[in-house]
Design the sequence.
């Protein structure tokens, strides 16, 4: 930093859960633009500048998402995770703009490939506040394990906002090195996905009719030969990793309902649930 040390305010959110930590950052930040990066990532030197470019080029944007690339592919587990699609699920490196005008090509209720990932993401604070912030029953540190970033982006799109995918904003993510860790992550990603959908139904049961229209796409992607979830996997991809991810999909709905109930109960000491990404769970929001 040419002008000397960068001032940092370290703020503690005592209640467990990544969504609560994110909401705390939204509440205390002094600016209207907030960016997040995870503690197991390495940001490109121009990362923040490229996120800012997304807002500059698209002044209407409520959120700008970058791309997360692997920081290392040194173990089979790291390679398997990228074969599964990594965090970008084959979104690629082509800039994209999502809005109500693009809903016929990319439904806000079917984020596959994803609109963005929480470890490389910037929001207008006003846009987050308008949709109620992050769902505290989703994300690391809850039984839902993931999904809070996807829910926030979906809420913004359904509210008429715009999300920009800016792949020039790059971070390197250091994937889990061991298969045991990857199994836990794959389970958590499955849990988080169906917990995300359950959260939408709880908030607005009318979305069920929209889900019915998306069902053929979901079946194709999860079981078809050309699907983004299954069709692009190599023949020797470990079957147990696919199985544990599907098990996570099955248990996601009751886990979300349990997490939502716990979020409404008085706080009590308990073991914090593991994140879908990190072991152990660590919370950090950079604003």
Sequence:
């Amino acid at each position: 930093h040419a002008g000397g040390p960068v001032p940092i305010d370290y703020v503690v959110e005592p209640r467990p859960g990544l969504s609560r930590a994110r909401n705390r950052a939204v509440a205390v930040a002094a600016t209207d633009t907030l960016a997040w990066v995870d503690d197991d990532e390495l940001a490109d030197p121009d990362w923040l500048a490229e996120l800012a470019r997304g807002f500059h080029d698209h002044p209407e944007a409520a959120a700008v998402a970058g791309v997360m690339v692997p920081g290392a592919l040194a173990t089979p587990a790291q390679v398997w995770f990228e074969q599964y699609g990594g965090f970008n699920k084959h979104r690629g490196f082509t800039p994209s703009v999502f809005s109500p005008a693009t809903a016929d090509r990319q439904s806000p209720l079917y984020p596959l490939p994803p609109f963005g990932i929480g470890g490389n993401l910037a929001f207008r604070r006003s846009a987050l506040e308008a949709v109620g912030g992050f769902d505290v029953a989703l994300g690391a540190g809850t039984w839902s394990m993931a999904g809070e970033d996807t829910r926030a982006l979906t809420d913004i799109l359904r509210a008429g906002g715009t999300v920009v995918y800016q792949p020039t904003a790059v971070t390197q993510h250091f994937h889990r090195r061991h298969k045991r860790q990857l199994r836990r992550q794959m389970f958590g990603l499955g849990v988080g996905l169906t917990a995300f959908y359950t959260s939408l139904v709880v908030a607005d049961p009318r979305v069920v009719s929209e889900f019915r229209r998306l069902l053929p796409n979901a079946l194709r992607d999860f079981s078809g030969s050309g699907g983004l979830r299954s069709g692009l996997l190599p023949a020797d991809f470990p079957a147990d990793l696919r199985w544990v991810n599907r098990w996570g999909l099955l248990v996601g709905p009751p886990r979300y309902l349990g997490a939502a109930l716990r979020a409404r109960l008085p706080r009590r000491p308990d073991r914090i649930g593991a994140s879908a990404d990190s072991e152990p769970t660590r919370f950090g929001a950079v604003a």
The radius of gyration is 18 Å. The chain is about 40% helix and 15% strand. The mean pLDDT is 88.
